[in-house]
């Protein structure tokens, strides 16, 4: 089965459920329960079952994240200094080509070698020297944002696998229910729980790595975010000895998939908030200060506040 | 009807009694039986009945194994012991006492089983050629399977739909 066929699977569940339910009604041997129960059975099979699955058909297509991911990969191309070419989180997304434009800053450092004075020293210390570290940290942060998109993509892809597995288990359970004498169960491990595990494991360390890389700028402040734990994938069981029993089991399973999708989304959101907090806490490690010279005018640029000590 | 339903409906099993005197085959609700050449004319009614009981046991065991194999191949398994509900236990208990019967239309062959563990077969072979007898035995087998299905369904409904759901 595949998610693209979910509508077909749901129709299959409805149809088999109705067939087996009708068999059960006939098994009661009384025309009265049949008359009373048949409309309920029809409603359960052809209204409630499709309603259970309907929200999943409205979820984002995992492929819809690709353009955004590609866009951030282009940003990573621009931020790659060459010393770290691999993707820090999703190795398969790298390596990235070094951006030669970034080396112009090193050239600028050579060009101002003859410039002396406190402004010159400050300019070198505040802008030229930390530039590689800042670019590297931004590379890290953009990689983390891209990984967040990958994590989102995984949530929806794994949700599709899970809901499809649940639907398939329900069909099989209904198939076997009255064809065998004993009771059977189908176990479904929810994979959506592990969506974005790589991202969630890496994010708490990103702040620390960035500070280490830009130690001179950030002064070694700690950005350690608390680890976001990914629980073990829960295992659902689809079973039932009657159509109503299988429906209850199916209802609980679908509800659990929804809960786990929400939890996975929440973990990604917490990681992103931790990342944003890390950047806010050590902004200087990620964002270059605005050069004071940027505020100079032609009249003031050679004054004491700007290039006053230039030779 | 899904793939597992088709697989279960298509389960075909065959069994032969240890001394090779009789064989049987089941496909869905259909049953066929046959005897080794020379066995039927020489067999006593008592001996024939015992042979048919042995055949029923073997056929049903083969059927249960084949059904389980089809379910396992489809990713299913018997409900784990720790997950058995009070109703599941009650069902199992009542199933062990469930009596199913099936006979040929003329009543010459009759099969009875309690809990699918205690079997008995009554056979009246008087004046029946081998092919006439095996046809009646097959008829009784098919009737037995239909009766069993009906009784199992009723038992399920009685237990699981009595109050609330299972």
Describe the 3D structure:
The complex is a heterodimer of chains A (311) and B (166). Chain A is mainly alpha-helical. Chain A is built from ten helices and two strands. A two-stranded antiparallel ribbon of chain A has the order 1-2. In chain A, helix 3 runs antiparallel to helix 6, helix 6 (131-177) packs antiparallel against helix 7 (197-213) and helix 6 runs antiparallel to helix 9. With 166 residues, chain B is α+β, with helices and mostly antiparallel strands. Chain B has one domain: Nucleoid-associated protein YbaB-like domain (Ybab, Chain: A, 2-Layer Sandwich), CATH 3.30.1310. In chain B, strands 1-2-3 form a three-stranded antiparallel beta sheet. Chain B has a three-stranded antiparallel beta sheet with strand order 5-6-7. Chain B starts with a helix and ends in a 6-residue tail after the last helix. The chains are: A mainly alpha (311), B alpha+beta (166). Chain A binds chain B through residues 12, 16, 19, 23-24, 27-29, 169, 171-176, 178-187, 237, 239-242, 244-245, 247-248, and chain B through 1-5, 8-9, 64, 67-68, 71, 74-80, 83, 87-88, 91, 95, 116, 148-150, 152-154, 156-157, 159-161, 165-166.
What is the string of helix and strand elements of chain A? HHHHHHEHHEHH
CATH homologous superfamily caption of chain B: Nucleoid-associated protein YbaB-like domain
C-alpha Rg of chain A (nearest Å): 30 Å
Question: Between the first and last Cα atoms of chain A, what is the distance in angstroms?
Answer: 76 Å
The largest chain-to-chain contact, stated as pair and per-chain residue counts, equals:
A-B, 34 and 37 residues
Span from first to last CA of chain B? 22 Å
Number of strands of chain A: 2
Average per-residue pLDDT of chain B, rounded, comes to: 93
Structural class of chain B: alpha+beta
- The residue fraction in helices of chain A comes out at 55-70%
Low-confidence stretches of chain B: none
Report strand % of chain B: 15-25%
Q: Would you identify the regions of chain A where 5 or more consecutive residues have pLDDT less than 50?
A: 210-225
The largest β sheet of chain A comes out as: 2 strands, antiparallel
Strand order of the largest sheet of chain B: 1-2-3
The count of helical stretches of chain A stands at 10
Order of strands in the sheet with most strands of chain A:
1-2
What is the correct CATH architecture of chain B?
A: 2-Layer Sandwich
Query: How would you spell out the order of helices and strands of chain B?
Result: HEEEHHEHEEEH
């Amino acid at each position: 089965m595949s998610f693209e066929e979910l509508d077909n699977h749901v129709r299959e569940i409805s149809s088999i459920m109705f067939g087996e339910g009708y068999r059960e009604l006939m098994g009661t041997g009384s025309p009265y329960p049949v008359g009373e129960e048949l409309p309920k059975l029809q409603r359960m099979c052809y209204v409630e079952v499709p309603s259970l699955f309907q929200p999943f058909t409205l979820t984002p297509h995992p492929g819809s994240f690709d353009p955004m991911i590609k866009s951030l990969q282009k940003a990573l191309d621009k931020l790659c200094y060459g010393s770290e070419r691999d993707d820090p989180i999703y190795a398969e997304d790298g390596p990235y080509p070094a951006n030669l434009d970034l080396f112009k800053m090193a050239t600028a450092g050579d060009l101002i070698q003859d410039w002396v004075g406190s402004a010159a020293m400050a300019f070198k210390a505040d802008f030229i020297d930390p530039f590689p570290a800042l670019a590297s940290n931004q590379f890290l942060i953009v990689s983390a944002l891209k990984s967040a998109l990958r994590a989102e993509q995984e949530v929806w892809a794994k949700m599709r696998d899970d809901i499809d597995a649940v639907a398939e288990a329900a069909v099989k359970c209904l198939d076997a229910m009255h064809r065998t004498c004993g009771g059977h169960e189908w176990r479904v491990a929810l994979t959506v729980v592990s969506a974005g595990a790589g991202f969630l494991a890496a994010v708490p360390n990103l702040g620390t790595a960035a500070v280490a890389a830009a130690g001179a700028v950030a002064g070694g402040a700690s950005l350690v975010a608390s680890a976001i734990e990914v629980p073990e994938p829960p295992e659902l069981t689809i079973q039932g000895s009657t159509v109503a029993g299988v429906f209850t089991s199916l209802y609980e399973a679908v509800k659990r998939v929804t809960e786990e999708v929400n939890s996975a989304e929440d973990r990604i959101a917490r990681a992103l908030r931790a990342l944003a907090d890390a950047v806010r806490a050590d902004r200087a490690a990620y964002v270059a200060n605005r050069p004071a010279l940027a505020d100079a005018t032609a009249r003031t640029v050679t004054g004491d506040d700007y290039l006053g000590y230039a030779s | 009807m899904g793939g597992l339903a088709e697989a279960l409906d298509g389960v075909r099993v065959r069994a032969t009694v240890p001394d090779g005197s009789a064989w049987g085959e089941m496909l869905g609700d259909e049953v066929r039986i046959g005897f080794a050449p020379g066995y039927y004319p020489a067999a006593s009614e008592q001996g024939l009945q015992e042979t048919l009981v042995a055949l029923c046991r073997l056929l049903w065991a083969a059927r249960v194994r084949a059904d389980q194999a089809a379910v396992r191949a489809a990713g299913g398994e018997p409900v784990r012991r720790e997950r058995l509900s009070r109703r599941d236990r009650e069902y199992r208990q009542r199933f062990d006492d469930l009596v199913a019967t099936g006979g040929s239309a003329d009543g010459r062959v009759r099969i009875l089983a309690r809990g699918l563990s205690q079997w008995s077969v009554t056979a009246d072979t008087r004046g029946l050629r081998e092919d006439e007898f095996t046809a009646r035995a097959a008829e009784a087998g098919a009737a037995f399977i239909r009766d069993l299905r009906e009784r199992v369904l009723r038992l399920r409904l009685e237990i699981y739909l009595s109050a609330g759901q299972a």
